[in-house]
Design goal:
The complex is a heterodimer.
Chain A: H1 8-16, E1 20-24, E2 27-32, H2 36-45, E3 59-66, E4 76-81, E5 90-91, H3 95-110, E6 115-124, E7 127-132, H4 139-148, E8 152-155, E9 158-161, E10 168-169, E11 175-178, H5 181-188, E12 198-199, E13 205-209, H6 213-217, E14 224-233, E15 240-243, H7 246-255, H8 265-276, E16 279-285, H9 288-300
Parallel strand pairs in A: 2-3, 7-14, 14-16
Antiparallel strand pairs in A: 1-2, 3-4, 4-5, 6-7, 6-8, 6-9, 9-10, 11-13, 12-13, 15-16
Helix pairs in contact in A: 4-5, 7-8
Chain B: H1 7-14, H2 27-36, H3 40-49, H4 56-89, E1 94-97, H5 98-104, E2 118-122, H6 127-136, E3 139-141, H7 146-155, E4 162-164, E5 170-174, H8 188-193, E6 196-198, E7 203-205, H9 208-222, H10 229-242, H11 248-258, H12 262-276, H13 282-288, H14 295-309, H15 317-331, H16 334-350
Parallel strand pairs in B: 2-5
Antiparallel strand pairs in B: 1-2, 3-4, 4-5, 6-7
Helix pairs in contact in B: 3-4, 9-10, 9-11, 9-12, 10-12, 14-15
The chains are: A alpha+beta, B alpha+beta.
Chain lengths: 304, 356
């Protein structure tokens, strides 16, 4: 049963009560929110996510109205992850975005059985392309463009890696696009469905893109990493693909991980296994079509 | 909301075997409660020890908790060795207290018990040398308001917290067991004198009796009782482990009298028994009965302690507030207390950005 297959009242009842537990890739996530705006957002953007069996969740995401007087005057919303409230309250119209940011916080802080790396994940024929990149490198834009060009969507934000096997689990949540990226992506992807626009505390305008159903349907299938590409969008730059020494890419993945040190030597061995079976490059680009062509070329050339 | 919210958790702490019968849907609330009371790592290790591996997310969470705590233990052991090196070279005899000591002694309940900071005891005359040595080798004082720093140095039993610039684990260097201002004055030199060397670690820890006494003083004299179920399980674990040693109970009673800590020991034995079924020999119970407070106070404490121990955040506010007031009262004389609370309150009101 998926979230969309529950009746509206059933779904809203669970969300407002004990929580709706959705299976997001390898994670069972309990979601509680009495807010209609978030409930409606979930009904759309998380429609294809399977409802998990009764039992424990990996963590609980809670978004609700905060304050007393504030409920009526400029209402605000608060996020709690497993009862912890790490953020200041935000204006009520940002509730759906707060849900996504809270979800991110939980994945980065509350998951300790998988290696969590800040990276987008795409796949072809069961082989994964990891895009580990700092904010502003164009990771999410490239990710959405790759999906529109036929890559299977794995994850926008996190690669969840099994420490023993190095297999990468998809986490196909909505893609967070900023400012002009929304226009760039919707021009390429006619069926794209966006959530409400919000302005981040940093000033960036953000919209969340609904993940494609095919990616969500395959979220239970772990992937073998084959390419690790550091994207770097630079206005006016010509497209260039350059190999990166393995040691440097391993260090970069470790730096991009939220919990690498928790695994000790196992974490190192795990990343090493990924690097050893992957082609490691940087991709500098300004022209998105050329960048897509380069990724296609990588996928066709199977030699590591 | 029921008054005694720790029911289920206390149940499995008393009898870890019951973890085997936790239903799939009950793991999440149990772990949430344990997490709020800093006992989730302990629970995860008890489950692991008993071979209890629930399928799905609950099992993943237990595995993650074990990983986290083992990782933290490794970091604490490393920090301990660095401190031994530096203070050893500086010629300061030192003893590790509380969490670090439990870890070094490899006590059964220490697995999964996350150590937030390393507590060290040195002689008061060595305090300056210890601070200088640590600061020379990369530890630094956390930035503090001048008032707070003065408060630490004048009135407490420890230096302001130190932290290594790279490893960032807080290190509290104590020269006493309770604040200078406290109503009781346990003689910390006894703890140093009777400390024992942990084989293979090169570090010293207090005698078993002193470990219990220190935990009891901390919990029942001047510490925060609210949400401190973990600290009660420490005492329970110490008593279960060292209670087997033939000389332990006599030493405990003798040192309780010597350190002026008879009342905390009375409470410690009473509430570990009541909440956690800790075995205590009957003759010991008879002997410590004379350390009890009057019937009215005891009745009040019985009523306050249990809900407060499992309290975190909401609920049971009255017991918590009452016990906090009691701890402050025991920590310093009335005029100093008034001055301290006035200063803290004014600073919080006038300088909200700098409030702690």
């Amino acid at each position: 049963v998926t979230a969309a297959q529950l009746s509206g009242p059933e779904r809203r009842g669970r969300l407002a009560g004990q929580g709706l537990v959705l299976q997001a890739g390898p994670l069972a996530v309990r979601i509680r929110t009495p807010l209609r705006s978030v409930q409606d957002y979930l009904a759309g953007h998380y429609a294809d996510f399977p409802v998990a069996d009764a039992g424990a969740a990996h963590f609980a995401v809670d978004v609700r109205a905060s304050g007393r007087v504030r409920r009526f005057v400029r209402p605000q919303v608060t996020f709690a992850g497993d009862g912890v409230t790490p953020f200041h309250p935000l204006p009520a119209h940002m509730a759906a975005a707060l849900f996504e940011w809270g979800f991110n916080w939980c994945v980065s802080r509350r998951v300790h059985h998988l290696l969590v790396v800040h990276a987008a994940v795409l796949s072809r024929n069961g082989h994964a392309l990891l895009l580990p990149a700092p904010p502003g490198a164009g990771k999410s834009t490239l990710c959405a463009a790759l999906v529109s060009a036929g890559w299977q969507f794995g994850s926008d934000e996190f690669a969840l890696i099994e420490p023993e096997t190095g297999l990468v689990h998809p986490l196909p949540r909505p893609i967070s696009l900023k400012d002009q990226s929304v226009g760039i992506v919707s021009a390429r992807w006619r069926e794209a469905v966006f959530g409400p626009e919000v302005t981040e505390p940093t000033g960036a305008r953000v919209r969340h893109l609904r993940p494609p159903g095919s990616g969500v349907a395959q979220a239970h299938v772990p992937l073998e990493a084959r390419w690790v590409v550091l994207p770097a969008y630079r206005a006016g730059a010509s497209t260039a693909l350059a190999s990166v020494p393995r040691a440097r890419m391993l260090a970069h993945l470790a730096d991009s991980s939220y919990n690498f040190t928790e695994f000790g030597a196992r974490g190192f061995d795990c990343l090493r296994a990924i690097i050893d079976r992957s082609r490691c490059c940087t991709l500098t680009y300004s022209d998105l079509d050329e960048a897509l062509a380069v990724c296609d070329g990588l996928a066709r050339d199977t030699a590591v | 909301m029921t008054a005694f919210r720790g029911g289920r958790l206390v149940d499995v702490l008393r009898n870890p075997g019951r973890l085997a019968s936790v239903r799939p849907q009950d793991w999440e609330p149990l772990l949430l409660e344990a997490d709020g009371l800093r006992l989730s790592g302990r629970l995860a290790h008890e489950a692991g020890r008993l071979g209890i591996r629930p399928p799905g997310p609950a099992g993943d969470r237990l595995e993650g908790l074990r990983l986290l705590s083992d990782n933290s233990d490794r970091a604490i052991r490393w920090e301990v060795r660095r401190i031994v090196e530096v203070l050893g070279d500086a010629g300061c005899p030192l003893v590790f207290l509380k969490g670090a000591a439990y870890l070094l002694e490899d006590l059964p309940f220490a697995r999964g018990r996350r150590v937030a900071d390393v507590d060290v005891l040195v002689a008061e005359r060595d305090l300056g040398r210890a601070e200088a040595a640590l600061r020379e080798y990369g530890w630094e004082l956390l930035p503090l308001e001048p008032y707070d720093e003065r408060y630490y140095r004048l009135w407490t039993h420890e230096l302001p917290p130190l932290r290594h610039t790279r490893r960032r684990i807080p290190v509290d260097v104590h020269h006493g067991l309770v604040p200078r201002t406290s109503r009781i004055r346990p003689d910390a030199s006894r703890v140093l004198a009777q400390s024992r060397l942990v084989p293979n670690e090169g570090a010293r820890v207090p005698s078993p009796a002193h470990l219990v006494l220190h935990a009891a003083i901390h919990l029942f004299h001047d510490g925060e009782i609210a949400g401190a179920l973990r600290d009660l399980t420490d005492i329970d674990g110490l008593l279960r482990h060292f209670g087997q040693e033939p000389t332990f109970w006599d030493a405990l009673q003798m040192e309780a009298a010597a350190l002026d800590a008879t009342r905390p020991v009375f409470y410690a034995l009473r509430y570990t028994r009541r909440l956690l079924d800790t075995p205590v020999p009957p003759q010991v119970l008879n002997a410590v009965a004379e350390w009890a407070p009057g019937a009215a106070v005891l009745g009040l404490m019985d009523w306050l302690i249990e809900p407060a121990l499992v309290h975190r955040g909401a609920g049971s506010r009255l017991p918590t507030a009452t016990l906090r007031a009691r701890a402050h009262w025991l920590r310093m004389p009335p005029m100093l207390l008034a001055r301290h609370l006035t200063t803290k309150t004014l600073r919080r009101r006038l300088l909200p950005s700098q409030a702690h």
